[in-house]
Amino acid sequence: MTLGSHEGPANQADSGPLPMAPRLPAPKDAGPTPTVPAPTPEQVQKQPWMHKLTPGEKPPQFVLFSFDGAVSKQHWDKVLPIAKSKNAHVTGLLSGVYMLADPDKSQYQPPAGLKRGLSDIDFGGTRQDVASRIGYLNQVIADGHEIGTHYNGHFCSNGTQPSVDKWDTAAWNAELAQFKQIVDKSRAAGLNLPADAVRGGRTPCLEGNWDQAFPAMAANGLVYDTSKVALGVQWPTVQNGLYEFPMPEVRVPALGKQVVMMDFNLWYSLNQAKNEPWRAADFAQIVLDTYKSVHQAALNGNRAPIVVGNHFNEWNGNAFSTAMEQFMEFVCDKPETVCATYTEVIQWMQLQDPAVLDQLRRMPAARNWQ
Q1: What's the sign of the alpha-carbon dihedral 219, 221, 224, 226?
Q2: Cα(206)–Cα(11) distance, integer angstroms
Q3: 48 lies in which domain range?
Q4: 347 in any annotated domain
Q5: In this model, does residue 228 exceed pLDDT 80?
Q6: Which InterPro entries does its entry note (predicted)?
Q7: 27, pLDDT greater than 80
């Protein structure tokens, strides 16, 4: 994450990979199916795929580009023109502390007894930096992209303790309340984000005790999470009152091994996340080929939404952002493929016969290996 001279989590190489895939267990409690506002007539006119499937019709192949942190202007400046040219929408998962200037960091009270003003990622720089950030995030919103939450202080298990994997429901409630408070202040300063627009997110480092975290997410009005990991590409299911859009574990063809399809995991699988920028072109091609093979497997298989998890980063000579941008250019206007936000996919699912969705969920996960 580039914040001028401030470096966020995306430029800090962790000591090890993000979690490999714990297989998604059957949810203990599906809970009520959450809902989002129905698509507007104008939206349906612009999105002809936004309709109830006719008998025998296949669903669109959704691709969900999502970016943790989500405030780097230099990366939005690359993504927005590609998305506009391909009629694509993406989701930025905002880290709340990036909307607090350094002098205002004491406004953030982390949960679980952590010290006020503490964060394992940088705050937002100067007040002018934050004001500028509001300006370009307004362009992101105006272009139809979604803003979700990546929570605030990014307390992963290899950092400050107690980390998010140890938090109880009260701690998650407090963290979400802090996120809302920060966004409300940003809105008062000019951020054009409707009060009900933040509908889901991804936890720091894909970590959390889900039995504790999910009740807080639902209680705070979230309708989806995209933090868990599953083997292959799977349809979202309702778990504890939220849609879970899992990160897929996939095969990297060039390596012949399975990896969670998140940019940092891919980097770690290639060279243990060492900075070797002279290998950038090779790494970008390997990652692009992986993305393409996953898309082909899902398109020819269960048509489950493909979650492409990324940070706005410059790791290893910008290899992973380059691969993501190239894949967006390649895939978003392919036949029967739609690059959409999480909310848009849920809107589409709400239009379908529940029996059809059940049938799709019973299909084998799409895997780019045999």
Answers
A1: negative
A2: 17
A3: 40-94+247-360
A4: yes
A5: yes
A6: CE4, Glyco_hydro/deAcase_b/a-brl
A7: no
Q: Are 10 and 311 in contact (CB under 8 A)?
A: yes
> Per residue in 191-226, pLDDT tens?
999 999 999 999 999 999 999 999 999 999 999 999
Sign of the dihedral defined by the CA atoms of residues 117, 122, 128, 133, in that order: negative
Q: Helices 73-85 and 315-331: crossing angle, nearest 10°?
A: 20
| In a domain? residue 322 | yes
Side by side, which strands form the sheet with 257-260? 229-231, 247-252, 257-260
Mean pLDDT for 308-336 is: 96
Residue 159 forms part of a structural domain? no
Give the count of alpha carbons within 13 A of 138, CB side only: 12
Is 265 inside a domain boundary? Answer: yes
Is 322 in contact with 287 (CB distance < 8 Å)?
Answer: no
Peptide bond into 162 cis (omega under 30): yes
CA 351 to CA 152: how far, in whole Å?
Answer: 33
Please choose, from the candidates 344, 364, 317, 359, the residue with its C-alpha nearest in 3D space to the C-alpha of residue 51.
344
What is the rounded average pLDDT for all residues in the chain? 92
Specify the number of domains making up the chain: 1
Sign of CA dihedral 288, 293, 294, 299: positive
Cα–Cα distance measured from residue 167 to residue 175, given in angstroms and rounded to the nearest whole number: 10
pLDDT for res 10: 35
Where on the phi/psi map is residue 48: left (φ > 0), alpha (ψ -120 to 50), or beta?
Answer: alpha
